[in-house]
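Give me the fold.
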Amino acid sequence: MTTKKLAAVLCAFAMSTAMLTACGDSDSSSDSAKKDDKTTTTTTAAADESEAPADSEAPADSTADTEAPAESTAEESKADAPAGTDIDFTYQTKFQGYDAFMMFADGGWRFGNWNGTGEEKEGFGIDADITGDGEYTVTLDNRVLGPDDRMNENADMDDDGDVVPASGAFVWCVDIIGICDGTTDRNGKAMEKNSLKDAEEGKNYPNIAKDIKGKFKGDGSDVKVQVTSIKADGQEVEFDPSKIIYGNIEGENNCFRIEIYNEYGDTKADPPLDVSSLTFKKLEVTFTIEGLGEVGPFDAPAWAQ
């Protein structure tokens, strides 16, 4: 074999070895990412940017061959995101009206959500902005990331990165923040003590803060609320509307509550539906509200601006 041929063979062998090594590194990184549930929420675009060296720009004449279109990157990001996570979703954190949100925890305390997205400590639901009388829907789907990319500690995913469906319910309510004035409970009984305070100038935001007095009684005598539909994964769920409880149930805040089921409430003894058969990845509650009149305007605290 001539010297030139031997050199060519050695060169080809070296190039093949380098390519195999690069592929091996890529596969190892991919396997590691799949084992870590939390890292599946990182978009492909962000991962590419963090891994690329600062001086790795492609020559000007090769841009068309090396840069992927923006649409392709977005599709790859959606494919990598855990099921039930809409990476294009933008949380509503500013409210013109009252922030209504779904409070929920399933039988294993998964899908836990305890706050509205307008509150200082935001929740993870898709809230409704109650700007007047009408029909509204609140939704919960075990979203992995909340406002400011905050991780939902109650998100539960399987080994494949898919959302584990909710099963049953321990707590299932809808709270409309800012409605009640603290004078009466849900039964119309006068409340001798409550922690609600009068709104101060520049600090009138009961619609997103639970400790400020609202305008209405807590017994539903001036504000009427009625659940009209419940859906689990898009399918209607049958329920007895007469067994749902409404009003200022807790008595220590300004929330007008819709109690569908609560392991610690009156609905446990006589629930409007069999929660043991409830299973879903996405839950929706639709309700009507009447008697609000003119809503707002409300101020906004520094944390809501």
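The radius of gyration is 26 Å.
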